[in-house]
Each structure stands twice: as structure tokens, then as C-alpha cells.
Amino acid sequence: MNILYIGDIMGEPGIKIVDNVLPDLKKDKQIDLVIAQGENVSEGKGMLPEDMQRLQKLGIDFFSGGNHTPSKEALKPLLEDPLQPVIGPANMPACPGLGYKFFQTPKGPVLVITILGETFGHTKVEIDNPLKTIDQILLVNKDNPRLATIVNIHGDYSSEKVIFGYYLDGQVTAVVGDHWHTPTADSMVLPEGTAHITDVGMCGILHSSLGVKFESVIPRWKDGAITKNELEAEGPLQFNSVLIESDDESRLARKIELIQKTVA
């Protein structure tokens, strides 16, 4: 089956570029399942249910999560509901839900999991051990039928995200990293058959600091000023994703393709 994973959707510009790109992409690539990182959808922090519904109408089937996922109270009942296609990190105690769910595609079920990286820069988040958490999730679900297992590793350090990918090589279909909002050039199928990329990138304004206005962050770096992130709303848009082709019998990956588009 063909599974598309879309990088962090950053506010309204991110929604706009998804609307522009996704419908034709689904047809051209015969995509069976679309997963998107949803932790930055609503004004850059969290995702409101109404924005989730907008994106579902555009063709997104399932939403992975990150450290901002529990910031919207209205989303919490959906995180806890096994029938709602949205999850937060499995190893973040403050986030409701298990951090993984099965999604039923026309071809069969797919298991989607989100894990936070253990090293998270200056952000103060309580995080359980990522490797022990993923071990437990895979053990609990080892006998549950599925066509693919897609694991999202949401974190800062490239070294950690690479280690996580190789640790799971041969056990899952794909390990997709995000949170940086900047795509890496290392997408590949690892030796034992797991597709991997350190960071898939984002959807939003191209000329920005990860979707944020430069003038809201440069004073912070230059002068130590306390500033609030302001989302950039003007300029060309970028769309970043990976397309994973999986083998239904082995539940591993045949290939992974980085798909990037810009729209003026």
C-alpha cells in the first residue's frame, strides 16, 4: 500500500498548501492512507477539532502528535477515543490517550504510533524512555493484525532520531522524524526493511523561521529579548512529505520517496 506522511502543518498557511497540493497528489500517487503531523495546526500550537475536520475534508485520514498536542482542551476527548484518528505522544504522561491507534483503510488496518524524543532542547516536558515505550507498544500489539506500522519520532536531536530508526529496523514499516520543520536529505529504506527519514519538514511559509516571522525571533537571539512567536502569513508556501510504499505480506517498506512542493 502507499502511505503518505505529511510534515508539521503550521497554522493557516499550512492548511492552505495542503489544500493546494494534496487532492492531486492523492490521485497521481494512488495513495491509500494519509497521515499528517497535527501539533501545530491551530495558530501554531495544538489542533482544534474544527481544524482537524477541515483537514479531514481535504483528504487527511490520521493525525500524529507532538509536545503541543495536549495544549488544546477540546482535542483531549478525541485523543482518548479509539475511534478518532488522532494521537499524541505515547511517552508523554501529560498527554491523554495511549499514543497509538489502529486506522482501518480500505485495504486493511494500519497501526500508527507517536513517540517523543528524550532530548527536547529547552522545552520542559516530562518524557518516559522512548525505546522502552515503543518496545512495550509493539509487544502489546504483536498479535494484532495489520498491514503496516508507522512510527513517528517527534524530537530535536538527529542522532536520537537516527538511533530510533535503526533500533526499529525490521520491526516496523517506517520511522518518520519531525519537529524541526526542516527536511533532511537522508530518506532511505534501512538494511532490514524499515523506511526512515530523520525529519520530514513542514507545511507553511517557505521564507520563515520554521513558520515563524524572523522579526519575532531575531531579537531573542541577538539581544536576549523576551518575544512571542508570530506566525508568518505572507510569501511562498512549502509542502513537505514522504511517500512510503509498503509490502502487505512482510509489513516492511519497499521504498520511501521525499515529496516537496512550493507554491508562490
Please give the radius of gyration in angstroms: 17 Å
The stretches of 5 or more residues where confidence is low (pLDDT under 50) are none
Spatial separation of the terminal alpha carbons = 32 Å
Oligomeric state as shown: single chain
Helix run count: 6
Beta-strand proportion: 25-35%
Structural category is alpha/beta
- Can you write the helix and strand succession as a string? EEHEHEHEEHEHEEEEHEE
The overall average pLDDT, rounded, is 95
The general outline is globular
Helix-residue proportion: 10-25%
How many β-strand runs? 13
For the largest beta-sheet, the strand count, sense and barrel status come to:
7 strands, mixed
If you had to describe this structure to a student in words, what would you say it looks like?
- It is built from six helices and 13 strands.
- The protein is globular.
- Strands 1, 2, 3, 4, 11, 12 and 13 form a seven-stranded mixed beta sheet that branches. Strands 5-6-7-8-10-9 form a six-stranded mixed beta sheet, covered by helices on one side.
- By secondary structure, it is of the alpha/beta class.
Q: Can you tag this structure with a few keywords?
A:
globular; 7-stranded mixed sheet; 6-stranded mixed sheet; 6 helices; 264 residues; alpha/beta
Summarize the structure.
This protein has 6 helices and 13 strands. With 264 residues, it is an alpha/beta fold.
Topology of this structure?
Blueprint: E1 2-6, E2 8-9, H1 11-29, E3 33-37, H2 49-57, E4 62-64, H3 76-80, E5 100-105, E6 108-116, H4 130-140, E7 148-154, H5 158-167, E8 174-178, E9 188-189, E10 195-197, E11 202-205, H6 214-223, E12 237-246, E13 253-263
Parallel strand pairs: 1-3, 2-11, 3-4, 6-7, 7-8, 8-10
Antiparallel strand pairs: 1-12, 5-6, 9-10, 11-12, 12-13
